[in-house]
Design goal:
The complex is a heterodimer of chains A (169) and B (271).
Chain A lengths: L1 H14 L17 H4 L8 H19 L4 H19 L19 H24 L5 H26 L9
Helix pairs in contact in A: 1-3, 3-4, 4-5, 5-6
Chain B lengths: L1 H9 L1 H21 L4 H25 L1 H26 L9 E10 L9 E4 L11 E4 L2 E9 L4 E5 L7 E5 L5 E5 L8 E7 L9 E4 L11 E10 L5 E8 L8 E7 L2 H14 L1
Antiparallel strand pairs in B: 1-2, 1-12, 2-5, 3-4, 3-12, 4-5, 6-7, 6-9, 7-8, 8-11, 9-10, 10-11
The chains are: A mainly alpha (169), B alpha+beta (271).
Chain lengths: 169, 271
């Protein structure tokens, strides 16, 4: 189910969201992260790594940006275990915890989504620029993209996901 | 050997990260290097078809505006055709004429330093690497590589692109390029300081690069600043193409281009 969901959102990203350019046609929301960040917290770190890499590669193939999203996906997949540890509740994650606003609460999802989006979007923009003198502009575009992605992912969390459990916060 | 295997098992995660990063980097470098065509041939059709679908939806939403623009362009072309027929008595110089082939951009964004655009058609329709691409009569880019049904276009706004521009119809010529910062400004370099510059002057193609015919509008002068080389200035040029609105394009091929290129390569080899 998770794999199908990721594939569905990767295709949506390629067909629809990549055509959305905000703020002077340079900022594109990376909404396939919505599905990627729904991978259960309890999985092995290899699953994160290969899951993010595979999603990135699929998006590369669908959009013709070969290697760009794969590299950003690998960086995100490698960073996610650390990010999740940093935002873990005081008594750690429970087996039934889901990475949703209905599971771990709005604040946790906001912090997690924004941090992951920052990593991914800055990686995408920096690799796409590939020039040191363009790095500051790439980081700025990456931050804008991360803010936009976070807002939309949070909206999707409320609109798409059903509440199956009370928030811990 | 056993120790090596144990080390690999112990550091499996780090090795996996490094391996994936290496694979991704190799893919990315190949995409931006001379050997990228094989990968584009393999997967370009998938990306092309998906982006084509998206572009169809987008263009459907803009039918009205596009029809008005096309109608205006047809009118202008008909007028030019009549003037040319009157001037030449209906005869055309077939030895050096430019062949025009209609096409459409299916995917392309503005602002990325190395963003390449996806367009159709491809090799089956006769599109070849090196062909110039026009939009609305303005220079837009050059075909970099082709698959069966799609082509990859390097727009004027690409930091690896180098174009040849001239100030006015007969003025000084120089290299036109983009530094990757502001999508509204390109730079025409190598212009002698004594050349008189007027804001709003048109920058035309020179035809030296065999990508665009001479006299094609590329941009307008916005200002100038001192170049690193003494006695020269760099001119700020605003591109005439509105890159965010590009849909229907024309592919250009000059007659006897291969023969001219061969001759130029021979000349360079002799030097």
């Amino acid at each position: 189910m998770t794999v199908l969901r990721i594939l569905f959102w990767v295709v949506l990203q390629a067909l629809i969201f990549n055509g959305i350019n905000v703020f002077g046609s340079e900022i594109t929301p990376q909404l396939h992260l919505f599905a990627v960040l729904l991978i259960p917290i309890q999985v092995d770190r290899f699953v994160w790594l290969f899951g993010c890499a595979a999603a990135g590669l699929a998006l590369d193939i669908c959009t013709g940006t070969y290697g760009l999203h794969l590299l950003a996906g690998v960086l995100l997949g490698a960073a996610i275990p650390t990010i999740y540890r940093a935002f873990a509740p005081r008594d750690g994650y429970e087996v039934s915890d889901r990475p949703t606003v209905h599971g771990l609460g709005f604040r946790w999802v906001l912090l997690q989504t924004f941090t992951c989006s920052v990593v991914y979007c800055i990686a995408v923009e920096s690799i796409a620029s590939f020039q040191f003198h363009l790095l500051s502009a790439a980081v700025w575009r990456g931050l804008m993209c991360a803010v936009l992605t976070t807002v939309l992912v949070l909206l999707l969390q409320y609109l798409v996901l059903r509440s199956s459990k009370k928030s811990r916060n | 050997m056993r120790n090596l295997v144990l080390l690999a098992i112990r550091n499996g995660y780090a090795l996996a990260v490094l391996g994936l990063l290496g694979f991704g980097s190799a893919l990315y470098m190949q995409h931006h290097g001379p050997g990228r065509s094989a990968w584009f041939h393999t997967t370009g059709e998938i990306a092309g078809n998906m982006q084509d679908l998206r572009a169809d939806w987008a263009s459907y939403m803009e039918f009205g505006a596009e029809n008005e623009r096309l109608a205006a362009e047809v009118g202008t072309l008909r007028e030019e055709l009549l003037v040319l027929r009157g001037a030449t008595g209906g005869r055309l110089d077939s030895s050096s004429h430019w062949t025009v082939m209609p096409g459409a951009v299916v995917s392309g964004t503005v602002g990325g330093a190395r963003t390449l655009w996806l367009a159709k058609p491809g090799a089956l329709a006769g599109v070849e690497p090196g062909m110039g691409v026009l939009w609305n009569g303005y220079a837009l880019g050059v075909v970099q590589e082709v698959s069966a049904n799609f082509s990859r276009v390097m727009p004027l706004l690409h930091i690896d692109g180098g174009w040849s521009g001239r100030l006015g119809a007969t003025g000084a010529s120089g290299g036109l390029s983009w530094d990757g910062h502001d999508a509204r400004i390109m730079h025409l370099s190598g212009i002698p300081r004594h050349v008189y510059l007027q804001m709003g002057d048109t920058v035309f193609s020179t035809g030296f690069d065999l990508i665009f015919p001479a006299g094609l509008p590329m941009g307008v002068v916005e200002g100038s600043f001192d170049a690193e080389v003494p006695d020269f200035v760099d001119v700020r040029v605003r591109p005439l193409s509105d890159f965010s609105k590009v849909q229907h394009v024309q592919f250009l091929k000059v007659g006897q281009r291969d023969e001219q290129r061969q001759l130029m390569n021979l000349e360079n080899a002799v030097q």
